[in-house]
Amino acid sequence: MKKNCLILVIATMISSNLNAQNEVLSAFLLKWENSKNYLIELAGAMPEDSYNYKPTERQMSFQEQLIHIKGNINWLSSTYFNGKKAEKIELKTKEEIINQLTASFDNVAEIIKKVTLEELSTEVEFFAGPKSKLQILNLLQDHVTHHRGQLIVYLNLNKIEPPKYMGW
Hints:
Four Helix Bundle (Hemerythrin (Met), subunit A), 67% helix
C-alpha cells in the first residue's frame, strides 16, 4: 500500500511539472504565433513605396523598424537559446523583409518547443543584468509589441487603417 501511494505521489508530481511546463510554453507559443501573424499583416498593409517612411528624422523608417524587430528576435533567440551567432542578412524588398520576419518567428517557435521548464529558470548574463531564460522569452515578446505599436502609428500617419488586433 505504501509503495502504491509513493508511486501515485511521484506520478502526480511528474504530471504537475509537465502540465506547468506545457502551460508556460504553450501559452508563449500561442501568443508568439498571434504576434507573428499580426506583425506580418501590419508589414503587408504598408505599400512598399512607403517602407522608407519615418515620422521624424530621428526615428527609424517603417522598414528599419521591421528589420530591427527581426534582428532582435534573431539575437535574443540565438544568443540565449541555441548558442549560435545570428547572421546578418541585407533585406531590400518588402517581400524579403516579410519572408525573413516570418522565418525568424518560426525559428523561435521551433527552439522553444525543445526548451524544458528547468531551462527557463536558468539565469543568463544580459547587458541589463542577469535574467532568467523565461525573462528573455518575455523580452522577446515585449520588444516585438513595443515596435509593433510604433508601426501602427506609422500606418495611421499614412492614412492606412491598421489590421484589427489578433493577439488573443
